[in-house]
Amino acid sequence: MPIKEDTVGLMLFPGDGDVTSPDVSWSYTGFHLFREWLASTDGFTLAEMRGFGGDRAWSSVSTTLAPLLDHQDDEGSLTTAQCAAILPELQAIVDQFHAEDSKQGPRSV
Question: Which pairs with CB-CB distance under 8 Å and at least 24 residues apart come from 57-63?
């Protein structure tokens, strides 16, 4: 029998009533992988950070994504100000990913 994993959702909007911002849901494992990928785009490894098995303090990294990366999977909300700061950074990462992906051309399956 397959094991069903609970999911975690993410919806970011800067409190201006515009709820057309991205929202997604993943398994907890998928969300963790997403956060690992985000950390790597900012030049550090999530596993080295406090709360993820490492000893490195969050104050030692300079990223607007810290509130998202260093947040309990299933507790509370980010503030409006945090979402307003995070959303443009996420958009820039996605834009860069799409630009790099389009340079590679079509992939064989």
Answer: 63/39, 63/89
Alpha-carbon gap, residue 81 to 15, rounded angstroms: 8
Handedness of CA 48, 52, 53, 59 (dihedral sign): positive
| Residue 59, helix vs strand vs coil | helix
Please write the tens of the pLDDT for every residue from 64-108. Answer: 999 999 987 767 778 888 888 888 898 888 888 888 777 776 555
Nearest to 85, CA basis, from 67, 58, 61: 67
Backbone angles phi, psi at 49, to 5 degrees: -90, 150
Tokens (6 digits) for 43: 């030049």
Which residues on neighbouring strands pair with residue 85, listed in sequence order?
Answer: none
Measured CA to CA, the distance from residue 32 to residue 12 in angstroms comes to: 17
pTM of the model: 0.73
Helix (H, G, I), strand (E, B) or coil at 84: helix
Q: Which amino acid is at 51?
A: G
Q: How many helices (H) and strands (E) are present in the chain, helices listed first?
A: 3, 2
